[in-house]
Amino acid sequence: MKKLKITFRKPCKETGLYEGLVFGTGDYLAALAASLALILLLSFLFYRSLPAALFLMPLLPIFLAVIRSEVRRKRERTLRADFTKLLEALSLSFRSGFSARGAFPECEKSLAISLGETHPLTRAVRKICEGISLGVPPEDLFTRFAASTALPEIRDLAAVLSLGIRSGGDLCRLIDACDTRIRTRLEVREEIEGALAARKLELTILSVIPCAILLYMRYASPGFLDVLYGNAFGCVCMTACLIVYLLAVLWGRRIIAFEV
To answer: pTM score, two decimals?
Structure first.
């Protein structure tokens, strides 16, 4: 008999979670459009020549990587917040006396009410329930799902579930202990993000100021910066300024980046 295989990695439209929440085609096209617009803006401000955008094209992969990282961080933050509801639903199911096979269908009903039928976590648990109905062990299904999300909190829960189910341990106690540890980690992460919120806003403002100054000088004092355009010295000078500007922005982003 052919072995049944359940996968969460694709298609992504079924779960919305795979490979660390990477870009889809629409996300990539949006990021590409934003990156190209930024390159055109820089070529207009620093070289007063739109064809100079061809010279700045090597920056395109860097801009795409930054946008992708920011979008992924926001999605993971949202997923972590919603993940606490999955923990609550599982804990309630086990406390109600359901086994591992019966807990996930009840968890799906709770998530459908709290998060909605189309939420990625609801769809993922529904897919687990489909696998359970076909005879696949629930701990294996949840472990595969956790691996597809690349989030440490979900992987921790998968390890606890797998150990508890296979060893016949007290799942209620294990889930509660896992819930406490994960919630503590999330609270610490939220506190750090709150403390850095002002610094992130300052970085955003400081990143915009140089471009705003160039734009202001161009229209407020026409001809004042003409010496920096249309000649070799001006091109070298503006290129050096652009490099320093981009390195400063990337350095600032690295300073405020953190992992808990």
So the answer is: 0.71
